[in-house]
């Protein structure tokens, strides 16, 4: 089973923080807030970094020719993101 790497480049010294500004619609900002609570993230930036990490994993996995699936109650569903 593939696992998403959980190392934080900001904590392991590979990178330094750089500030950026993002424009979010009210709905998108609400989603970030909901995810922050669900993930018990320390900041909205942590939520965005986790999202980028997940997207990077997905794109890399698909480019390597893998199929991404979820399984519930023995039923498999292939995951395709419209990127």
Question: What is the strand and helix layout of this fold?
Answer:
Elements: H1 26-39, H2 44-63, E1 69-72, E2 75-78
Antiparallel strand pairs: 1-2
Helix pairs in contact: 1-2
Detailed description of the structure:
With 83 residues, the protein is mainly alpha-helical. It has a domain at 26-78. Helix content is 41%, strand content 10%. It is built from two helices and two strands, in the order H-H-E-E. It has a two-stranded antiparallel ribbon.
Q: List SSEs in N-to-C order.
A: HHEE
Q: How much helicity do the residues have?
A: 40-55%
- For the secondary structure, the number of strands is 2
Structural category: mainly alpha
Low-pLDDT ranges: none
Rg from alpha-carbon coordinates: 15 Å
Q: Going across the major beta sheet, what is the strand order?
A: 1-2
- Binned strand content: 5-15%
Overall mean pLDDT score?
88
Question: Can you count the helices?
Answer: 2
Shape: extended
Biggest β-sheet: count, sense, barrel?
Answer: 2 strands, antiparallel
Spatial separation of the terminal alpha carbons: 24 Å
Concise account of the structure shown:
This protein is mainly alpha-helical and 83 residues long.
């Amino acid at each position: 089973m593939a696992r998403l790497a959980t190392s934080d480049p900001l904590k392991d010294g590979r990178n330094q923080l750089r500030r950026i500004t993002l424009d979010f619609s009210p709905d998108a900002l609400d989603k970030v807030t909901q995810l922050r609570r669900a993930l018990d993230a320390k900041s909205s930036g942590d939520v965005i970094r986790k999202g980028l990490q997940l997207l990077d994993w997905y794109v890399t996995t698909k480019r390597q020719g893998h199929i991404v699936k979820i399984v519930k109650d023995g039923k498999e569903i292939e995951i395709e993101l419209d990127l």
